[in-house]
TrEMBL record, chains A, B:
Coiled coil: none annotated. GO terms for molecular function: DNA binding. Residues 104-315 form the Heat-inducible transcription repressor HrcA C-terminal domain. The keyword Transcription applies. Belongs to the HrcA family. Negative regulator of class I heat shock genes (grpE-dnaK-dnaJ and groELS operons). Prevents heat-shock induction of these operons. This is Heat-inducible transcription repressor HrcA. It comes from Seinonella peptonophila. It holds the Pfam family HrcA. InterPro entries: GAF-like_dom_sf, HrcA, HrcA_C, WH-like_DNA-bd_sf, WH_DNA-bd_sf, WHTH_transcript_rep_HrcA_IDD. Keywords: Repressor, Stress response, Transcription, Transcription regulation. GO terms for biological process: negative regulation of DNA-templated transcription. NCBIfam families: hrcA. It comes from the Bacteria.
Length: 336, 336
DNA sequence: TGTTAGCACTCCCTGTATATGAGTGCTAAA
DNA sequence: TTTAGCACTCATATACAGGGAGTGCTAACA
């Protein structure tokens, strides 16, 4: 376990490194009044901290930089997230929600705000269709073999998809199916099992379950949206064109991105460096939180930046914004 | 006017510079057998070409690089675009269209192919809603004041938008409007004037024209899609992080992008360097062409790369692909 | 008159040597 | 246990020389 003084030194090193992006020397730390011992003492302590794995030295006789373990300790035991007051929305530049007209827009607006405030990259996941509830289904034939199926959910999102029409199915029968679905399944979760049983009720003589499942299974329903991509170029660690490139490549892989920012538990998730399994972000940190409505997760909002990230600010902001957005979405839904 | 020999020298310089990205010297040019004179002669000619503005010298005693005027002359009078045979689709790695299920996907697939083939960035514009024809309108109320309007076009695209419901309008009346629109306006162009006259037919006692116009005016209907963003990092001119950054920033400005690649005339458009008004692409070239169906423009496909671009290859490819895609879309629409 | 060989000159690039400075680890004294 | 002092390390900056690619000019040649 670390002594109180070691904690304070670790704290000072990390705070300084977050601000300067340069190795921190003993003299710099000794100048801060929270520590109050001489540079030589700090050198000894820093050597200990390095031995324990909380600090690293880029080369002999350079200052120290925090290791992944150091950041982890800092996040878990040292940092107190900045706390935003309820009334500070305007100060942050939050839009008047009245003018926004969909769940998606509200989430994106928040993402833009976040990236502007932090100068890191913001990633948001729109709602999964599985996590939403059916309001209205429509199937519009394009030809005798193809149709477009459209689903509107209770949150006002529209999913759309092209489907083939099974051989023996007439246009009239399709209308019947749509009618039955709209009458009986409204308000149900869009799970893969939603359509089970509808087929039998029609007594068509052939099985439609598989087709109906496809009607409701919207691919690409997970909308990944990123914002502030170029802002991250301000960070000195991304001056390296190859790192930059790896990151941009990553952005095109929707699946990976989703996996990266998806929180595995409630609350705020901080993943530091190699804790993110993907190699191209092994020196990045990702902080994310879920957006909840009625206890259900409707979206995720996350920030990606260098491990040398302003955790205090970002954790505080994400905490505040995720709750704020949940709140406002809730009110917006009731006001519809 | 340039002499035949000057043309050949300009040609050689540009071809070499396109391949090497480095200033081309007189010795290098004299080695090519198409020219066949000594280095000294070429030095004289190159000095003339520079005086006329076709070549530039980055610094005294360096080789020459083409100027914008040089590229323009090259494109207009020298280069013969590579001609792809009809049967070379497979060679290019063109997908079997059967598995693609929307106009959008077909265009995007082509964009990906283009950027893979050229190592430049590809930008496509999806169809404007104004240029499409109505197949089906639906309005789904979300509450007493809000609804979602959905338009499906003849090309199978779905546009969707949230609208407010005017005060005195009942749900029944909305259904009537939708019915009238679907009966009378099918196959019409989605122009802003589409809905004119519908209002009177209903004899509601108040004017709905403005609202109806909004129903059909889909914002963000111009889908901008980019592909191969990171590929452009292979080009030496984008090693500079600031240029890179300017380009990425540009990508987020949909309006500007549209303006940049929108062709002003039929056929293939080549815009070199400062001919693109936007500063961040003042050392890029953009080659674009429209995708036509039934004589109407349904999309645009363009390539953005350094002015030092392989014009021969790109012009040839865009020419081939834009016609090929138009063709295949046409067949695909008939087969629906 | 047009073409070419020869030559001095320019300017970039690279590698080497040197100086500077921030920071360390160790030792010994307080 | 803390601190001052000192020798040592290593990255970075600066200066400088040599090499090389390429030019412009001149004079000779066909």
């Amino acid at each position: 376990m670390l002594t109180e003084r070691q904690k304070r030194i670790l704290w000072a090193v990390i705070d300084d490194y977050i601000a300067s992006a340069e190795p921190v020397g003993s003299r710099t730390v000794s100048k801060k009044k929270e520590v109050g011992v001489s540079a030589a003492t700090i050198r000894n302590e820093m050597a200990d901290l390095e031995e324990m794995g909380y600090l690293e030295q880029p080369y002999t006789s350079a200052g120290r930089i925090p290791s992944q373990k150091g950041y982890r300790f800092y996040v878990d035991h040292i940092v107190t997230p900045y706390f935003w007051q309820q009334g500070q929305s305007e100060e942050l530049g939050l839009q008047d929600w009245g003018s926004l007209d969909s769940l998606e827009q509200i989430i994106r607006q928040t993402a833009t705000l976040l990236s502007k405030q932090t100068n890191y990259m913001t990633i948001t996941l729109g709602p999964t269709s599985f996590e939403e509830r059916l309001r209205y289904l429509q199937v519009v034939p394009l030809s005798s073999r193809h149709a477009i199926s459209i689903i509107i959910t209770e949150t006002g999102r529209v999913y759309q998809q092209q489907v083939e029409i099974p051989q023996h199915l007439t246009e009239l029968q399709i209308q019947q199916i749509v009618q039955i679905v709209n009458e009986r399944l409204q308000g149900q979760l869009l799970s893969p099992f939603l359509a089970q049983g509808v087929s039998q009720q029609l007594e068509l003589g052939f099985d439609l379950d598989e087709w109906l499942t496809r009607l409701f299974h919207m691919e690409n329903s997970e909308q990944v949206y990123t914002s502030g991509t170029t802002r991250i170029l301000d960070q000195p660690e991304f001056q390296d064109i190859n790192k930059m490139r790896a990151l941009l490549d990553l952005l095109e892989e929707t699946q990976t991105i989703m996996q990266l920012i998806q929180p595995t538990s409630d609350g705020i998730q901080v993943r530091i460096g190699k804790e993110n399994v993907v190699a191209s972000v092994s020196d990045c940190s990702i902080i994310s939180a879920s957006i909840m409505i009625h206890g259900e997760q409707v979206g995720t909002i996350g920030v990606l930046g260098p491990t040398r990230m302003n955790y205090r600010k970002v954790i505080g902001l994400i905490d505040y914004l995720s709750r704020d957005v949940s709140d406002k979405l809730h009110r917006w839904l009731r006001g519809l």
